Automatic annotation (TrEMBL):
<keyword id="KW-0472">Membrane</keyword>
<feature type="transmembrane region" description="Helical">
    <location>
        <begin position="53"/>
        <end position="83"/>
    </location>
</feature>
<feature type="transmembrane region" description="Helical">
    <location>
        <begin position="6"/>
        <end position="32"/>
    </location>
</feature>
<keyword id="KW-0812">Transmembrane</keyword>
<protein>
    <submittedName>
        <fullName>DUF1772 domain-containing protein</fullName>
    </submittedName>
</protein>
<feature type="transmembrane region" description="Helical">
    <location>
        <begin position="89"/>
        <end position="109"/>
    </location>
</feature>
<dbReference type="InterPro" id="IPR013901">
    <property type="entry name" value="Anthrone_oxy"/>
</dbReference>
<dbReference type="Pfam" id="PF08592">
    <property type="entry name" value="Anthrone_oxy"/>
</dbReference>
<keyword id="KW-1133">Transmembrane helix</keyword>
Length: 159
């Protein structure tokens, strides 16, 4: 079991990655499925609006804050190399930073940008929308799994 500042870091890691797992999960099981039931122009417009709001909302603070917490945990753990929990702390950090933050940057955001460029009424948007829903949601499932695994790894550091 970790002690001292590592205890606080592990608890912070559990909280931030657990919250993000919930946010990502809600998108996969509710939001994306709901958008998929709408006609393409409305679904694409709603997703574009969500993506715009996400950049200036609490979501961005949570998302980037979780990445910052995980990065701090990784750096402190790597530099100070605690006797207990180091593998779990480093694994938890890596899982979120690569599997949630990294996937967002390389998989979800480029799809969001393409959807925005296509507009909502074009033939290209109509053709892209089913693929967008499928691929974006698949990558979002990766973010869910990575965030859950990260939180679990931090929990194991506490055990």
């Amino acid at each position: 079991m970790v002690e001292g500042p590592y205890l606080a870091m592990a608890v912070a890691g559990v909280l931030v990655t657990g919250v993000m797992a919930g946010v990502f999960g809600a998108f996969s099981v509710l939001v994306m499925r709901g958008l998929g039931t709408l006609p393409v122009p409305q679904g694409a417009a709603a997703m574009n609006a969500i993506n715009t709001v996400a950049l200036t909302s609490v979501f961005m603070w949570l998302f980037s804050g979780a990445a910052a917490v995980c990065a701090v945990i990784a750096v402190v753990t790597f530099v100070l190399w605690p006797a207990e929990g180091r593998v779990e702390l480093l694994l938890g950090s890596g899982l979120y930073l690569v599997g949630a933050f990294g996937v967002t940057v390389v998989a979800n955001v480029p799809r969001n940008e393409r959807l925005q460029r296509l507009g909502t009424e074009s033939a290209q948007a109509r053709a892209y929308w089913p693929r967008y829903l499928r691929e974006w949601t698949m990558w979002n499932h990766v973010r869910v799994a990575a965030s859950i695994a990260s939180a679990l790894s931090y929990v194991l550091a506490l055990a």
